[in-house]
Specification:
alpha+beta; GerMN domain-containing protein; globular; 4 domains; 33% strand
């Protein structure tokens, strides 16, 4: 056989090998793409308040599965599961190499509570780590390496000690200003719990400076607060930086601003009064208008004067908010408090106008109230009534639990 023919045969043989190899490679890749993987997807169960793994099957590459897991957490197919990923967040890309899955999360300016952020991060991280072949995760935020996810979760620290257990949270009620600066308004918030009062107090100040989630106004900025110290007798000392003097406020707004800090801090049982310093020095006034020469009690209560603190309803950006109104009184009479709450104040609403109080008594720090309505109440109205009564009840001395009945529905609410 001639060398020329032999060369052709070898070339043909190599071509066949190439085609066979290429075809085999494509078949292998398509098989991998079509391969089904079982992934533990972590959803949040609000009853035990924990993340629960649910096995889900996905097909495709690791990158494809990562994107599918993200969308599943963001929009579960089954209504029995709640989304854990905020709707504002999106997954820009997922890359997998040498056992490491790298993802880029676009935050789109999302502002979430500490609990919402921990749920989102831990559900996502645990779910992605359960994808076959993924040994480690790298999470970029808005195309950059970041120490924090949105605001609270330390990415590297949390990933290095990854757990599906949520930290312990505490519910607090923060006081902001209404957009017209005429009232205080309550916003319910969960913060990281601690057995150290000063840590909790600083968390509250941090949350106030972080701002409202629903459009209320916070005049406090992170750079205004240098430290906070708790003393015996329930006294908290807030040490401001002199930068706070740059605030220019009217007399009424100044007083309300100071009270938002005092009322927020006195959420903590260890704090009864708040005094203020600037750069570690005692001051007699703030903003030239607010007398802080003596520690300030909740709602500026004085030893010789009590207040009925009644909570009314207003709507900010279509969200219900609860606004306290302080009415001076010599003694606290339970029946009078809740009869007064049935009367609207100014432009504030009450949902107790058509409500009869059929029972009211106190036993072992628990206030028991039974209410009946003259008409059928909607679910929203029941919720407004429940919050009005609860917030008002918690302002009554020596009450820490509310046993409330509205028609046939019962609620046991604690501070």
């Amino acid at each position: 056989m001639k060398k020329k023919d032999t060369g052709k045969l070898i070339s043909l043989f190599l071509l066949v090998l190439f085609v066979v190899g290429l075809t085999g490679g494509l078949i292998y890749l398509r098989t991998k793409e079509a391969e089904t993987s079982s992934v533990n997807v972590y959803f949040y169960d609000p009853i035990p308040k924990e993340l629960v793994p649910v096995k889900e099957n996905f097909s495709g590459s690791v990158e494809s599965i990562a994107k599918q897991v993200f969308e599943t957490l963001k929009s579960p197919q089954l209504l029995t599961y709640f989304p854990t990923i905020p709707k504002e967040l999106s997954l820009d890309f997922a890359k997998f190499q040498d056992g490491t899955l790298t993802i880029n999360i676009v935050t789109n300016g999302a502002k979430k509570t500490v609990k919402e952020e921990y749920i989102a991060f831990l559900s996502l991280a645990n779910s992605l780590k359960s994808i076959k072949g993924v040994n480690s995760l790298k999470i970029l935020v808005d195309s950059k390496e970041s120490n924090v996810f949105l605001r609270y979760v330390n990415i590297n620290e949390t990933l290095s000690h990854l757990t599906s257990s949520l930290p312990k949270f505490r519910t607090v009620y923060l006081y902001f200003l209404t957009p017209d600066l005429n009232y205080q308004a309550v916003e319910k918030r969960e913060i990281l719990d601690s057995d150290k009062g000063e840590v909790l107090a600083m968390e509250i100040l941090n949350e106030l400076s972080y701002g409202s989630k629903i459009g209320l106004v916070s005049l406090l900025k992170p750079e205004y607060v240098k430290s906070i110290e708790l003393k015996s007798g329930g006294l908290a000392i807030v040490n401001f930086s002199n930068i706070i003097n740059e605030l220019s406020l009217g007399s009424s707004t100044s007083n309300l601003f100071v009270l938002t800090i005092v009322n927020s801090l006195t959420n903590i049982g260890d704090i009864r009064k708040v005094s203020f310093e600037i750069d570690g020095n005692k001051v007699d006034t703030l903003f030239g208008a607010v007398d802080v020469s003596m520690p300030i009690a909740r709602f500026n209560a004085l030893p010789n004067m009590s207040f009925m603190i009644l909570y009314y309803v207003s709507f900010i950006n279509e969200n219900p908010v609860y606004i306290p109104v302080a009415i001076p009184t010599k003694t606290i009479n339970l029946t009078k408090v809740f009869e007064e709450l049935k009367k609207p104040k100014n432009n504030l609403q009450t949902y107790l106008s058509d409500i009869d109080i059929t029972k009211i008594e106190v036993k072992n720090y628990t206030l028991k109230i039974s209410l009946t309505s003259k008409r059928v109440l909607s679910a929203d109205e029941i919720d407004y009534i429940k919050n009005q009564v609860f917030l008002t009840a918690m302002e009554i001395p020596n009450i820490n639990t509310l046993d409330l009945t509205i028609g046939e529905e019962g609620f046991l609410l604690t501070r």
